[in-house]
Amino acid sequence: MSILIKNGHIIDPAQGIDKKGDILIEGDEISQIGGKIKKKADVEINAEGLIVAPGFIDLHSHLREPGGEEKETVESGLRAAVAGGFTTVCAMPNTDPPCDTRAQVEFLKNRAKETGLGTGLPVGAITKDRKGTHMTEMCELKEAGCLAVSDDGDSVEDSVIMRRALEYASMADLVVMSHCEDKELVDEGVMNEGYWSTVLGLGPIPGKAESIMVDRDIQLAELAGARLHIAHVSTAESVDIIRRAKARGVRVTAEVTPHHLTLSDEALTTYDTNLKVNPPLRSDNDIRELKKGLKDGTIDAIATDHAPHLENEKEREFNYAPFGMIGFETALPLVRKALIEEGHLSWPELISKLTVSPAKVLGYDRGSLAVGEIADIVLINPDKEWVYEKSKVQSKSSNSPFIGWTLKGAVEGVIIAGKQVQVEQK
Amino acid sequence: MTKKKQIPWEKKNLLGIEELSEEEIQLILDHAVGFKEILGRPIPKVPTLRGKTIVNLFCEPSTRTRSSFELAAKRLSADTLNVATASSSFAKGESLKDTAKNIEAMKIDMIIMRHACAGAPLFLSKNVDASVINAGDGSHEHPTQALLDVFTVREKLGKVSGLKVSIIGDIAHSRVARSNIWALTKMGASVTVCGPKTLLPAEIEKMGIKATSSLREAVEGADVLNVLRIQFERQKKAFFPSLREYVREFGIKADVLEKYAKKDIVIMHPGPINRGVELSQEVADGPYSVILDQVTNGVAVRMAILFLLGHARGKGGLKSRKNGKK
Lengths: 426, 326
Description:
The complex is a heterodimer. By secondary structure, chain A is an alpha/beta fold.
């Protein structure tokens, strides 16, 4: 089986490629890239006017299986991911039961494989049952296929346990992904603390509840000599702390979500529970600093934090609704708007944050179109406008505040390990 | 009051003061004057809302506000139904949306809602055709309280514009404070909020007011003090060390008034009072206190609101009933 992609605008930040050319895929690998390729192939794709890039890698998502299959399954989640151009997604371990054993890791990997829809990379828990008290068997998790561990949804509150987990994880060559949140400081908060929480009378979450933990975890990673990845950075101060840590050589990386780059806390005047996310939507100043952080390399990756919830869970009082919004299918157009339209990043810079850069965070051998690499590829129509309609959502849940929005930038096709994958249009 | 003339009121719901214009606030207050006069008559009842059904949906305990609304509705000849649900049962059992749909299926015209969660009345209004009146939602707004407060100020001092009003107490968790801030600033008063620093919410000065933790600063030069109820028992992690220290620093006592207050200062309180805490006994019952006038005025103001919303429903643009369909 061979595929020839012709006349596309190839953007592969891993190799510094940003020009028109062809790509030949043979079997599951890329066998030739660049220039005019004359060879015959089984399938020819005319990519005139399209960007051809490595498939996106999402460091942060919730596929809900096992335990939350009514919200999302590995199959429906990966389908939504493919629709958004993601060919690899990291699945956070806050499932029921949590992903904290070899059996769980293998279950998830196999489930993903069965779908034929791209790679699901299980993120193992840092602590058993995500309780924050006993480390998981990280060496075995690594052997089973984990590249990262996280207690996402919670910080490991006990500093000595976090220190030892970082030390142990670094021995197992796992990156520790930290959800940074001081729960005591969050108290009963449900939105960013500031003018709008005051006006709306909603419980405030101070930005410091995040940056205090970012600071602690960076210092612990420094002590442990470990690799630390900060999940869903949302405040200016966190960006500043990470920037300074990187400057002094701490092995820390960071991600930001499309929604934190797109919406500020002012949007909550509608009390739309689809805007209730953790960390909360922050201020305009935070958004500015997040963009600067992406530009100067402080923030390595864009990750969705795709978090499906049922309509009846979200259709209620703001205080009682769960945190989270889905994000796979809207990621590309949202970051296009926030970062390219506003002139913060070029296309190659943006694609880097979705491909090679998250791959580096994980130590994952994808995210490049180099000859010999597994052919995970996305075809992007950069200027196509489309309306995000509820009836067309691929995810099992539709908890997105962007439904009804006209978005610019569309995924036109995805190739996973040398196979064209079509997501059935709804 | 029933004569059919053009009244410049279009709103279907009353969800907060923030969304009202100064003209709309004045309109409510002006109508309340008329209704207060009716309340003074031997038979204090008019047929304005005869045949209309008004539901009191109280998902949080309330005596004063609920009674006041019920009485206001009855004085306007509406039928009333009280539905009291502890908010905790919402958290577990029937969803608010289902509750709303069920109540509406009974063919009603207005829902007066009190709820522990900010934004709940807005949510309700998106799910029912009935008019929704916010009777207090979490720490967000309590519009009718603010309207009766400014009504009382206007009645006692002849105007609101140009006055200095200080609101004292737990500002962070107070819907009364927020609604009062909107109403007073829209009407041209200058507002100061005062309380322990732990109970002043973030960036509140951006609402166009002053915030201070100095009681002296709040009392000096003030025409009106609106003193909020302090709830120490319910604080899981305390915002101040003791009631004793609160009283010492922020309690409105005779000596505080003697030292710092204007001679003709007006003291208000939305009730229920913790005597000896935010207000001392002698101040609560003293000559400056207008607390019971507030209660009387509450009925008149609520009649005005029910009247105006009913009026808007009667106009062409709004269908008063749609067979329960959305």
